[in-house]
Write a structure and sequence with these properties.
single chain; 349 residues; mainly beta; Sulfite Oxidase, Chain A, domain 2; Immunoglobulin-like; 2 domains; six-stranded mixed beta sheet; five-stranded mixed beta sheet; 5 helices; 9% helix
Length: 349
């Protein structure tokens, strides 16, 4: 595998969560994973959110008017659809995530359903389109970044129009002044720097919906759209790291392993640990999550014996979805939730 200069440039613009900071229930803003698809846009002075399309009454709302409505706060774990892409073989050329494209924030704002109810959705509505100010070229097409939700998901789900993160005003890199947050869905759904919301009478056929973010086995495959997050567990790497390789070193004896687990398909039901590369597994202790859409803390008491070990963790959710031992390749390198593997050297004494 070779990382190109283009990929290195993407990796320098975006950043993942340092895995040792999985210890935080809520990720500090500066440590939350970040993916900026095009550029951080210059949002116009006097910005107002527009709500239109197939509605009874179009809305135009300032941030102050949005803040005047009752605030809803949810703790939500958000993960990039490309998390784990860099571990696929053959190599997929894109943002080279390993396992760190995740974070959990307390998002505050107004429910999407609240504004749609105020505007009055007309008969014949099918989807709700969210359009951001960020523009660029993808697949040879100049476009604004925009994606849609079904009307049912927009009205019945927990989707938020967020203007706060961890109790503070939304920072520019996370979509200020307003962004969409769709709990349980991969991060590409949560459009940032919102310009407008449009109620549609037909499915949206823009590039980010019909071509990007789909599980495709080859270039000719139309593929299946990505939606909800597959289960994943990550551990805080124990001991101390080698600077370059991140190989871990720790003394022999009792060692408490800990991490987080989540799924957008169903609540996490179990986490298991292995110290021999996945040959044998033992149950970890699992705490309840702080919110329905937030990760759960897990712990495991390991008696670290001298030698070389490969630690693995895997999650299973209440619907029976479980992490695979090995990744499944696809064109975009999406939804690789294969188990995390952490090589450790345990030293006697």
């Amino acid at each position: 595998m070779a990382i190109s200069l283009d990929e290195l440039q993407l990796a320098a613009r975006n950043h993942g969560l340092p895995l040792e900071t999985l210890r935080y229930d809520v990720t500090p803003v500066g440590l939350h994973y970040l993916l900026i698809h095009f550029d951080v846009p210059a949002v116009p002075d006097g910005w107002r959110l527009r709500v239109g399309g197939l509605v009874e009454e179009e809305l135009s709302l300032s941030l102050e008017e949005l803040r005047a409505r009752p605030i809803v706060r949810r703790i939500v774990t958000m993960e990039c659809a490309g998390n784990g892409r860099a571990r696929l073989d053959p190599h997929v050329f894109s943002q080279p995530w390993l396992a760190e494209a995740v974070g959990t924030g307390e998002w505050g704002g107004v429910r999407v359903a609240t504004l749609l109810e105020e505007a009055g959705v007309r008969d014949g509505a099918v989807e709700v389109l969210f359009t951001g100010f960020d523009r660029g070229v993808d697949g040879g097409i100049e476009q604004a970044y925009e994606r849609s939700l079904t009307l049912e998901e927009a009205l019945a789900g927990d989707a938020l129009l967020a203007y706060e993160l961890n109790g503070e005003p939304l920072p520019p890199q996370h979509g200020a002044p307003l962004r969409l947050v769709v709990p349980g869905w991969y991060g590409m759904t949560s459009v940032k720097w919102l310009d407008r919301i449009t109620v549609l009478d037909r499915p949206f056929e823009g590039y980010q919906q019909t071509h990007a973010y789909r599980i495709r086995r080859d270039e000719e495959d139309e593929g299946e759209p990505l939606t909800r997050i597959r289960p994943r567990a990550l551990m805080v790497p124990p001991g101390v790291p080698d600077f370059l390789t991140r190989q871990r070193f720790l003394p022999a004896g009792p060692c408490r392993l800990e991490g987080r687990a989540w799924s957008g398909l169903a609540p996490v039901a179990a986490v298991e640990m292995s110290a021999d590369g996945g040959a044998t597994w033992s149950a970890a202790e699992l705490d309840p999550p702080p919110d329905r859409w937030a990760w759960s803390r897990w712990t495991f008491e390991w008696n670290a014996e001298p030698g070389e070990h490969e630690l693995c963790c895997r999650a299973r959710d209440g619907a029976g979805n479980e992490q695979p031992l090995e990744p499944e390749w696809n064109v975009g390198g999406y939804a690789n939730n294969a188990v995390q593997r952490v090589p450790v050297t345990v030293r006697a004494g």
